Amino acid sequence: MSNWLERITDLIGIKIKSELIDRFVEIIVAELSLSNCMVLMPNAEGRRLIPYNGKNNFSWQVDDLNHPFSHVLQSSLPMTLSSDELLFWQSDRAFNELVAGVGMFESVCIYPLPINSKQVQLILFMLGDERAVSRAFSSQVCIKFVDVFTKQWHLLEKMEREQRDIKVLSESLSDIQRDTKQRDMADKLSLSLIGKSSAMQKLRQQIVSAAESKLSVMVQGDTGTGKELVAQAIHQLSNCNAEPLVAINCAAIPENLLESELFGYCKGAFSGAESDRKGLIAQANGGTLFLDEIGDMPLSLQAKLLRVLETKQFRPIGGKQELSSDFRLVSATHVNLLDQVRKNQFRQDLYYRLFQYPLTLPRLSERLEDIAQLSQHFVSEFNRQHGTQIRGLHYRALDCLKQYTFPGNVRELKHLVEFGCAQCRNESEIDESCFTNRIACLNLERESAEPVIQQRAVSTLMSERSPALSQGNLSTINDLKQAVNEYEEQIIRERLELFSGDRSKAAVSLGIPKRTFAYKCRKLEIKLL
Fold first, then answer.
1. How many CB atoms lie within 10 A of CB 294?
2. CB of 104 within 8 A of CB of 18?
3. pLDDT value at position 360?
4. Banded pLDDT at 473 (limits 50, 70, 90)
5. How far from 166 is each of 46, 158, 163, 302, CA to CA, in Å?
6. Which helix (H) or strand (E) segment is 82 a member of?
7. For residue range 16-28, what is the model confidence (pLDDT) as tens digits?
8. What mean pLDDT comes out for the span 405-426?
9. Phi, psi (degrees; rounded to nearest 5) at 44
10. Taking CA atoms, which of 96, 130, 201, 446 is between 20 and 30 Å from 50?
11. Alpha-carbon span 250 to 262, nearest angstrom
């Protein structure tokens, strides 16, 4: 028998748990001539026993009494099982596979660690000569060796746990600092994106999150909701705020000029190109490119934009060399791009590339509680620009504004407040009367415009559903009366569908009395909704 005390020096200098256990097992196997040995420990949840650095995938429930490890863990007493006694433990498949190779003169020895302790931390599994194991664990020097191992393991476990706690604490502090920073940034945004409603608070948080990422941002919202303000906020809060924000409205520039605006051109590329011109893509290098109303971009140009986004490379019109530009893309639209994709009016691959981080701006009608704060902001702006001292809005004026639907959203509210300021005497409040007539006129204008819009929608619907009639292809008609009835029935059905079954509106849109409309529906056996 070797001197166990000499083996202690092999353990003391080890500072990693896995290396400590591997060395401990090697020494035990060598000194006791074992055919198998391993150390088991509870997992992180403390519900299963798993081999530490084991070469198998065995594990055992801590409270399952069908295997001997659970008995040793609960009793804190060692257990020795001969080959015959192992037959009683065949109900546990994992344990049965572990001891399948036990020879006739071998035994399974299971010792709790630390030895002679009621608080078991590890379990030592040994397969070999029972007498050799018993003699060794009856020796004080062997027990001293095992005790040094368990203390060293406990020390390393404590140090590892402290390191984990420090890491968790550091991550928690980082999370708190990041959350605080995001809240501060969101609060600063309230100076430009005004509103205390839950919708605006959520939007400001999303803007901060989008600015911290490097994803392409798609800003969706109705006209007048502030899409350009959102794009500016994303740029200012991002890491590329030191470089320029380059913006272009794709709907405001003719198709033949949009490409040269984006990509630039070289001298002589076309008639009038008297010198090289740097495009907006090149100007946005290192900064942000804001493409407003991107839904109006031509299909041919969409393919070129997609290539730039994927490769960061582009070629000016008439150029022979590829140039590079690394920019953050923010795009905006008020149309339903997915619907345009279905109609093959917008590229599907570009659609998914743009929608890496979508932001949807709420309508003003969805956050009426913000009208008072927005109105006061616009009054303050008016005072600053015109040198006036208008005090704000009377509560009845605010109530009047809150009853309006605001199809033009925040931009329309701003114009209304400016109109009210212009009608108000200096150093006084804006009265309700400043808005009532103006809002009535706006409603009247909208109502008068609706029939024209509806008629266009009907014409479009008819041309889509009845292309032969819309194009004047009447050569196939051989029964005039039947054709007229079918055409009349089609018009009435589609008009009812357009107005969601409202017979009054359908009759008015066709220029006939409601009673006549109902009669035609009965005659043509059209079910009224």
1. 25
2. no
3. 93
4. low
5. 22, 12, 5, 50
6. strand 79-82
7. 888 999 999 999 9
8. 91
9. -60, -35
10. 130
11. 10
